[in-house]
Design goal:
Keywords: ATP-binding, Cell membrane, Membrane, Nucleotide-binding, Translocase, Transport. By secondary structure, the protein is α/β, with parallel strands linked by helices. 31% of the residues lie in helices and 29% in strands. The protein has a single domain, classed as 3-Layer(aba) Sandwich (Rossmann fold). It binds adenosine-5'-triphosphate. Adenosine-5'-triphosphate (ATP) binds next to strand 2 and helix 1.
Length: 256
């Protein structure tokens, strides 16, 4: 099976320190993978490297091609990114919600061309799926943290990319909208897309198909979320302060 997204011997430095150490990791079509681990494990850094947003050693391959050699627009059509807490989105505060979501269509549009029917349909689908459509005429800067997160998620969905990388997508979302996000991911997976999400909520992370467990800039384990070896790796990386149980058919990480 060919990996849709692959990191080979990935290293990354931040400041003077190497924070990722020779990571090899592959993600496959129609799978949702959660990346978990303690604070400072390197999860966000790995996700940024996989998105082509950070200088790094080794090679990232997207759909079998080196990401670094891929023209920017082609890359942006295939790989969609949702950063942590809307970092760097302050400059979009004056934009209307509709226009923020439309930014997700830029990789599909010709230079300076107006959005076409396909772009408008994709934006409406995305805003409706995160229940943000009713705010379409409001400026992003006037929304609450969770509302804003749903608009940024809609922008990432509007790209309709093969691969979605999301860093802490559940941050600020209330429980019903967390459940909606999981439903949205399930629909993307059913369409054959690939989703990789960094998650601190371990119970949400355990709903994914696969889990990457990281610590100290390394991948300690990569396996199925319903596999006992993955549960042991998760318990170990958090110093056995959590224990994984199955309750009413769901895997839950319970503090102890
Ligand atoms: N600009 C920087 N300069 C130096 N070190 C940095 C810089 N940014 C992050 N780091 C370090 O890199 C390491 C990995 O950080 P990263 O944000 O990838 O971790 P994380 O697993 O996503 O953490 P968290 O769960 O806290 O969000 C951490 O030890 C962090 O202190």
């Amino acid at each position: 099976m060919t990996a849709v997204l692959e990191g080979r011997a990935i290293t990354a430095r931040l400041g003077h320190a190497e924070v990722l150490h020779a990571i090899n990791v592959s993600f496959f079509e129609g799978r949702w993978t959660s990346i978990v681990g303690p604070n400072g494990a390197g999860k966000s850094t790995l996700l940024k490297v996989l998105a082509g947003l950070l200088p790094h050693g080794g090679e990232v391959r997207l759909l079998g091609e080196p990401l670094a050699a891929m023209p920017g627009r082609a890359r942006a059509r295939r790989l969609s990114w949702l950063g942590q807490g809307g970092a760097g989105e302050g400059s979009a505060d004056d934009l209307m919600v509709y226009d923020v979501a439309m930014l997700g269509r830029l990789p599909h549009q010709r230079w300076l061309a107006a959005p076409n029917d396909a772009d408008r349909a994709a934006v409406e689908r995305a805003l409706r799926s995160t229940q943000a459509w009713e705010w379409r005429d409001r400026p992003l800067g006037q929304l609450s943290g969770g509302e804003r997160q749903r608009v940024l998620l809609a922008r990432a969905l509007a790209v309709e990319a093969d691969v979605l990388l999301m860093d802490e997508p559940l941050a600020n979302l209330d429980p019903p909208h967390q459940a909606d996000w999981m439903q949205t991911v399930r629909e993307l997976i059913a369409q054959g897309r690939t989703v990789v999400s960094v998650l601190h909520e371990l119970n949400a992370a355990l709903v994914a198909d696969d889990m990457v467990v990281m610590a100290q800039g390394r991948v300690l384990h990569h396996g199925a979320c319903n596999d006992g070896a993955t549960h042991r790796a998760l318990e170990d990386v958090f110093d056995r302060r959590v224990v994984v149980h199955q309750i009413e058919g769901h895997w839950l990480a319970v503090p102890r």
